[in-house]
Fold:
Amino acid sequence: MDLVRHLRYFTVVAEELHFGNAAIRLGMAQPPLSQRIKRLEEELGVRLFDRSARQVRLTEAGRLLLGEAREIVARVDRLHELARQGEGTVLKVGVPPDLAAAVIAALVAGFRETNPGVRLAPAEIWTADQLAALAEGAIDVGLVRHPVSAPGLRFGQVLVQAQGVLLAEGDPLAGVGEVHLADLAGRELLMPPREGEPGMHAETLAECRRHGYVPVQVHEGVGLGLVLAGAAVAFGPKVELPGVAWRPLLGSPIMCRVSVAWRPATAPISASVDDFAAVAVRTLKESAGMTDERAVPVRRVSRRPGMLA
Amino acid sequence: MSLPDFDALFRGAGVTGWLYAADIDSGHEVGHRPDEPLPTASMFKVPLLVALCRQADAGLFDLSERVTVTDADRSPGPTGIAAMLDDVTISLRDLAYLMITVSDNTSADVLLGRVGFEAVNDMLAAFGLEGTRVTQTCRQLDDAMSADAGHGWPYLDAEDLARLSVLDPARTNRSTPRELARLFAMIWRDEAASAESCAWMRGVFNMQVWPHRLASGFPYDDVAVGGKTGTLPTLRGESGVVEYPDGRRYAVAVITRSFSTALNQPRADAAIGTAARMAVDHLRR
Structure:
């Protein structure tokens, strides 16, 4: 089946909650639409809609899958749009695969506005692979996570964002205002792949250990399925996702630090890289809630006398 | 944001509780019957410490002055000089250190003899802390308990407890959760005495040894807790300041009365920390 097309039908029906209206919006008849939703439900093995009442309602499973479905549809739309863009200079850009779809879209739109003559070709690549791709010239510019060590590359302004913790909404910690890393004891941790983000991996786990959290197991992956299932927690920016609770981390111990990275190049790519770096800083501040990097406050460790008694 | 369910927490720990917490810098506050007059138990040592510092600031004496504490000066108590056997020569500030960090009753009475009730209470009145008064030494507290009960420690029978005047705020050292927290906030804002004295007092409160009450609610290396406990039969309390890694700081006072007369009630102690945590968490939302 064409899964993306079926997911698009699903998102439209979920918005309308009415098969007739959704069919009109999609420019098709109602019976084939119903059939396709049924096929999607078979494919996924869950019921997405409750059609028993007079009104169509999303099932719990449908509610949980809707966000992901929207994201997939948005990414595919963007892919097609990029493919449609005209010829001319191509700027090959690497972005981390877990960067929010909205942020990637804003990056592309912002860059197109200032550089209509340059086609942006984004690819989702983890930091470590971006560094290799930059060195090889496979991409012109990357958006990388720090800390990185890559001699010969240039880095733009570093932006930061305090990460919170993503928990299943049934987790007892979802009820408190702030979570300390030590409170996460006993929980497994979901992180981006270590091979792809070695610096961030090492730094995050070191902070966890220092603050009293040694995850029983570290899972590697991007989707939040394990978090939804209550099998793991993850660190990240605030998200609104059914079934998932986001809480700030007490003391902001986990910081996401990103910057643009590029290999010193010759014009005209060089000018495009500068423009991209400027657009990236603006977009990450406006769309991703990132801020200028400031001096990291010195971590104070309280000297409780009981510790030495 | 609705108030945390303090009653349910206290009930679950087998106690009745009173609480007040405030952001020291913004004044944002939360309370649970915060203005109820309550016995301070050993928390009266906090205004005594402040009054001692103010007298030293005024040049009445030097805190490094040494005094000799003999057996005749010894007030009963389980810690510090009260529990020692021999004469001790020690500076006034080290007596204060023992009075706060291990709640030494003998150190407290020696210092109260030096400072005087009047100076402590005049200071409290000048601070506008009208619900807080110091009227008894540790020795008088102890004598009152044995006189009321007709026997010495321990006091485990409900009939004995009903007779203890030290559990009646009208007849013993008293305060309210709000006023205890306000006094701590003044120390943390350098308003209670000279800035130098306030800094020293903060250091001493941070060296208090007990981990089971306020500090138990904040079991993190990067959160500092300074305070002073107070304990009498069925009464457990602590007031102090919790400092977060982002620099925000909260004055908190929690006092509980347990339904059971048992002396060892770790859940009642921990409820003080948990209630404080809930209050601070509420203030940070």
In short: Strands of chain B lie at 15-23, 29-32, 38-39, 66-69, 88-91, 174-175, 224-232, 235-243, 249-258. The longest strand of chain B covers residues 249-258.
